Amino acid sequence: MELIPTFIGDEAFRPKVRACIKGYLDISDNYSLSIGLYKEGRIFVYSNSDDVFSLQYDIGSVSKTVTAHLMLYLAEKGLVELDKEVCCYIDLPRGSYPTVYELLTHTAGYHNLTPIEITLPSLLSHGYARKNIYEDCTSKKVVQCLKKRQRVANAGYGYSDFAYAVLAVVAENVSGCRFSELFEDFIQNELSMKKTVIIADPKRRTPPAADRGRIYNFWNWNANNPYVAGGGLVSNLADIMSYLSLQITSNEKYITDAHKLCWASLSPNSNIATCIGWHTYKNSNQLWHVGGVGTFRSSVIFNKKRQMAVAVLGNAKGVASANVHYLAKMLYSEIKINKIKFYKVKE
What we know:
By secondary structure, the chain is an alpha+beta fold. It has helices at 15-25, 63-76, 100-104, 116-126, 139-147, 161-175, 179-190, 228-231, 237-249, 253-256, 323-336, and strands at 6-7, 32-39, 42-47, 57-58, 210-211, 214-215, 234-235, 272-274, 279-281, 286-293, 296-303, 308-315.
């Protein structure tokens, strides 16, 4: 059943939340912010745009959570086994390689690994963040890099874009389908996120944020690029809230299995741990992920037990962009302690 959103106004939030939102938007008229809140089966929306659902945001690394569900879906279909090394699905030299599960949970030892062979051409031409640093990558390049980088035993948690590019190659090989096509088909037909795509229509895409005349370009993606698995999706608030609702209400195994804690990710030096594709905290029912490419930032949080979720999608430059995750965490806490006046409907 499709959930009908209720639009709420500034009056729904306490002064400290309003101040955070105002501080973000007052910097530039070109900044945009879209907020979705899920509370016990209802969706509430706040935005500085009157046409919030037409705005398309690059969601960056939140894409990894969708890739994780896709890999679990392929596992259900018997096309891949999570505990098998990737050399079972990719033609690689003899050696020790990470398992599919280790890649999904960022425990493969590839943390802080951005293969220089992949990123150097773009970095030299454009600099970091001004353009997609992975724009020239192909599955062939990922496999070449993988041949030089085998498994690191007992690596623990270490976040990795490269790990998800490898997963895209695995998915291509076991399905016989180009990853971008497989990805979009899964997203739109299994997850029912009908407006979420890899290559967006420029006429409908939210423009990059501008401030004092300086504009960054979109992170454009080639359909053959395996790094789309880790950060290539463009979506809108309606689809993101539908996706979070699914996390809370679905009993599909490829959804619920992603919420299981990865014990190998636990560390005495950090409160952060991982599930499959998702992050969590020790002794917490809160699952979350953040994303960022170019001027776009995204933050999603949900708690299945408490039947609540938050999504904040932002488009801003500089230090303001970091406030998206700060605001998402603040809103999550406000819902948790019942401090949001959901009855304050926007006029």
